[in-house]
């Protein structure tokens, strides 16, 4: 392992280090560093892990300014708008008054028994801002720029992050094989890319519900999720204060934020699906686009004619958005208003560079319903909508299942890639069995790793609470770590350049008994260290050439090292040296273990 | 879902129920039941889950008599020898004085600084027994019987467990495609089968080490592991009291027990690999065979010529047994004594029906070393040894890796099946990445599910403590549950008859909001219930038609049900009825939610 960075081009390999990051006062063996691009205001954050052998390993970093001790963050002020100058400099957007915020935006309506005013204390106190949008119907999307051959600072930023040339980034976006979600009203976000040519990404869902949780909790969950590696966060709030919660999350988020506008629109009509209208939905999309939502799940693929296809399913429609649209279609016996107004919706999203995440409202909710007619009928519609969105220069990704047994997973990604012209696939798992509630991060992590290996670009995490309750802080961490494992396993299987250097660094540390390095290179250093110390707490154990699993006498790695030391690791030497070795070995007292062995 | 049992033939479908099993006084929604075979002393245990809709689901049960309230178990007495009559009735074995137990069997030697006598208090107090073996060199193995066309009670027992005909069991064993580990000295074990035509099995490792843990703990870990679904248990003890610990474990184990005799042999020579001899090893094998060990890992594939192939590896040799044999070969510059005496070893194993688990001493210990020359050179040797074992009527399975990235997994199972003539493959994971110590149950659960789908017959579990420390009770449970998920996901992908009925039953319960049924059908009912109650503790929530994830207004399943109720679930009716539906819907106040919705 060298300290050459696996994630960034050698040319730009000069991370400027910050002073040592510490946790509870203890040095934690890594620094937040930055790789500078072609301009001083283009600095790509990396996690620089310092090994006890003097080498270092540079890892992709999603944690934002929160892990930089030189940056003073304050959730009441929000993050610095690092992309603002880039956006303004393009000169194709303008600020405008924007849509006034109304009580119902936070789910407060006179019709509600709770009634009352909007909770003003909760209003985000940060710097006042005006929303921004493309001038006179201009598409200000990364897709439009890429098609014109422009390499934006955002594209250069992700090129450095992904260790590819900016031109590759531009090509993949222009071809619709990748998206760079970056609403002009979310300048705080650090650019990232979602596409099969790049590192597999992980999304973490947060969001309060009618039943529980607060604004503070959601902001905390967002920073917590990105600290462990979430590449994007979806705010799926459905309770009150939706608008305000989202404002706090956006102003403090270093990663793109996704939403499902339909949830908030439904709140605005007291949860009565049949009272939804295109006008209410459109107003909600504009509201969220002005706040800076980077991508929106739109269930425009659930058409009236698809609903009957779910009639004989074991678990019907399990997507919230899908079931709401199905109920609307049946209530009015009309075609979906999302499908009918899709072109108009494209124009709105293009003006803010909001990326489509075309929702799979008819995804299977059980092993029994996997890959059925309803699911694939909707997928064909999504393919049609994908083409329309591209005509409007709107970046688009496609959502996927769900619950799918292993032998039916590949068909999903293959069909999606064919029907949607290689648009990025964004899947929820899939869960490979239904029998393990409380362990669905694992039932789905299996499917996620496989489908990502076969080409899925982003994985939506599943926590241990799936099907049972709302995830707490620990569940969010477990979900993110599990999905980072699935994503990295897929990067390895895809042979992503540099991906294996991380595994190699950790395996070298393991073979050389550099325990601290193993901990610091681990996806979760805290838990790795805690587990080791549970059995061997003493500090000497951190340098011992064995662990509690086998004890000193049985450490295979120790024995391997002894064998290797005798031969300098060169095979021919070994062959020649073997007879010699057996004599030396006897001379050395025939000991293959350390003195501490007994 | 009907109450027809997925796991047993309809003909034998009359489980006799015991009185209700309870936990902490609370009914836990399932009973221990038995399916009787062709004779009264052939009773196959099953887990009968009782649903609130009056139906029941019957699941495979590995927990032994401990979960039968009608059986009074006592670890100091041991389990009833259910197979004893079957073994005696065959008339091809005889009791004999057996080998005297010596202090060094428990790792106590005058050379040891600790010295001291064998801990007599620890000696197993159960009924005195003489060891049994085949008469005058007779092979008393299930393989020998199967080849002769005999269907033993053990074969009928597993046929009922696996829902196949006894003849299929006999054929698979006779062909060497499956093993039924059943030492004549372990009559307490409930017969089970390992082969790709059958349910994928899971092994849990236990065992004290020089560093920690006691006899009591190991027995407790064994019963705990089988309670959660472990199909076999390997006792990998390496510290003191090895012999005595194994005796307690065997006398109390309802599942086959595996060991690695080399570990105990090494203890007998003070941990000096070069002092190992064929005589010491052979004596240890006989000692363990007389106790009743059902299968033994033998690293006879690690040959002198293979050691140099590991010289340039990133992590050398990571198998304890492999590294010990490599050290021995180098110390003496001689061929492995296990390889040289393999035929003699076959004769010993045949006399007790001990099954070979041919160890992969050169398995890769890191992503970098996967599928290398050393690994496959050993595999070719294992293929050769497999043929020799079969000539001696010894049942044989083959051990597999290890650390393997996803794209290299299939090559492992395909090569093993080809080289070893479809002998059962028994793999450790494989781990699909090295970067997540503390989560290796997950990094390996991904690889385990895939390789099992492709034909691996048994999976050796990995716990969260892998690479870090010794697993405790919680780690054992987490490891077993994770691997039961991988095994069942593979059963589904292989289309194992009846496997999906379990998922369907749970999905039906989910769609119908039968929360108690979801918990009771779950792999881990306790945790599923606890997670649900964390957010919605109240009893009414157990019958509520929503959960805390979406809240009442957003429950997609509820909406689906409403849609379905309107149409009776028949598609044509739905198409005809749609216009009608929208009128009814309006008439019904356009409500798709329960009154509790707001």
Keywords:
homodimer; 598 residues; alpha/beta; eight-stranded parallel barrel
Q: Tell me the major beta sheet of chain A.
A: 8 strands, parallel, barrel
**Largest inter-chain contact set:** A-B, 141 and 141 residues
Return the structural class of chain A: alpha/beta
Radius of gyration of chain A: 26 Å
End-to-end separation of chain A in angstroms reads: 34 Å
Report on this model:
2 copies of one chain form a homodimer. Chain A has 598 residues and is an alpha/beta fold. Chain A has 20 helices and 18 strands. Chain A has helices spanning 84-90, 142-147, 153-162, 166-174, 215-227, 242-251, 261-268, 278-291, 320-332, 337-340, 342-352, 373-391, 409-419, 440-453, 473-493, 499-511, 515-521, 525-535, 556-567, 571-587, and strands spanning 16-17, 22-23, 26-27, 30-36, 43-50, 56-60, 93-95, 132-134, 178-179, 194-195, 201-206, 232-235, 257-259, 295-298, 355-358, 396-400, 425-428, 458-460. In chain A, the strands form 5 sheets. An 8-stranded parallel beta barrel of chain A has the order 11-12-13-14-15-16-17-18, surrounded by 6 helices. In chain A, strands 1-4-5-6 form a 4-stranded antiparallel beta sheet. Chain A has a two-stranded antiparallel sheet with strand order 2-3. In chain A, α3 (153-162) crosses α4 and α8 (278-291) packs parallel to α11 (342-352). Chain A is globular. At the A-B interface, α9, α14, α15, α16 and α17 of A face α9, α14, α15, α16 and α17 of B.
């Amino acid at each position: 392992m060298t300290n050459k960075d696996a994630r960034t081009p050698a040319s730009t390999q000069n991370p400027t280090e910050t002073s040592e990051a510490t946790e509870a006062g203890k040095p934690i063996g890594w620094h937040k560093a930055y790789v500078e691009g072609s301009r001083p205001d283009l600095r790509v954050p990396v996690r620089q892990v310092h090994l006890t052998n003097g080498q270092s390993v540079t890892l992709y970093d999603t944690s934002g300014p929160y892990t930089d001790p030189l940056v003073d963050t304050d959730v009441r002020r929000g993050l610095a708008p690092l992309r603002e100058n880039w956006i303004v400099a393009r000169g194709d957007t303008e600020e405008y008054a924007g849509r006034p915020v109304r009580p119902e935006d936070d789910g407060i309506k006179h019709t509600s028994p709770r009634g009352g005013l909007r909770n003003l204390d909760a209003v985000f106190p940060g710097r006042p801002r005006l929303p921004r949008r493309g001038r006179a119907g201009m598409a200000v999307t990364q897709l439009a720029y890429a098609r014109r051959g422009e390499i934006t600072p955002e594209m250069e930023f992700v090129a450095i992050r992904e260790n590819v040339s900016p031109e590759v980034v531009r090509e993949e976006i222009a071809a619709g094989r990748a998206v760079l979600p970056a609403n002009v009203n979310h300048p705080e976000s650090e650019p990232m890319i979602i596409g099969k040519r790049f590192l597999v990404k992980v999304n973490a869902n947060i969001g309060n519900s009618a039943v529980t949780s607060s604004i503070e909790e959601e902001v905390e969950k967002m920073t917590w999720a990105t600290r462990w590696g979430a590449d994007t966060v979806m705010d799926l709030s459905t309770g009150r204060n939706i608008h305000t919660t989202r404002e706090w999350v956006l102003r403090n988020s270093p990663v793109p934020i996704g939403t499902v506008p339909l949830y908030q629109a439904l709140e605005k009509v007291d949860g009565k699906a049949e009272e939804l209208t295109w006008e209410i939905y459109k107003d909600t999309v504009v509201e969220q686009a002005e706040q800076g939502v980077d991508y929106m799940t739109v269930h425009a693929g659930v058409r009236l004619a698809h609903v009957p296809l779910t009639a004989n399913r074991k678990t019907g429609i399990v997507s919230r958005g899908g079931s709401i649209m199905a109920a609307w279609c049946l209530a009015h016996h009309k075609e979906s208003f999302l499908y009918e107004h899709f072109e108009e919706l494209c124009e709105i999203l293009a003006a803010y560079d909001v990326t489509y995440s075309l929702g799979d409202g008819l995804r299977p909710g059980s092993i029994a319903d996997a890959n059925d007619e309803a699911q694939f009928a909707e997928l064909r519609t999504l393919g049609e909508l994908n083409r329309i969105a591209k005509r409007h220069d709107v970046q688009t990704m496609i959502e996927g299942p769900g619950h799918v047994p292993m032998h039916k997973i590949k068909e999903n990604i293959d069909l999606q890639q064919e029907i949607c012209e290689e648009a990025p696939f964004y899947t929820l798992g899939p869960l490979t069995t239904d029998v393990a509630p409380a362990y669905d991060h694992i039932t789905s992590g299996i499917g996620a790793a496989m489908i990502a290996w076969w080409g899925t670009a982003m994985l939506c995490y599943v926590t241990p609470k799936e099907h049972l309750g709302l995830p707490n802080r620990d569940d969010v961490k477990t979900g993110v770590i599990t999905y980072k494992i699935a994503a990295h396993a897929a990067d390895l299987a895809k042979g992503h350049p540099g991906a294996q250097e991380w595994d190699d660094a950790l395996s070298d540390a393991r073979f050389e008994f550099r325990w601290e390095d193993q901990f610091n290179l681990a996806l979760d250093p805290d838990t790795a260290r805690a587990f080791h110390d549970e059995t061997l707490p003493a500090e000497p154990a951190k340098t011992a050439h064995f662990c509690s699993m086998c004890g000193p006498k049985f450490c295979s790695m120790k024995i391997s090292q002894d064998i290797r030391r005798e031969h300098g690791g060169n095979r021919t030497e070994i062959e020649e040296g073997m007879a010699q070795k057996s004599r030396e070995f006897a001379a050395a007292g025939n000991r293959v273990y350390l003195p501490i062995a007994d």
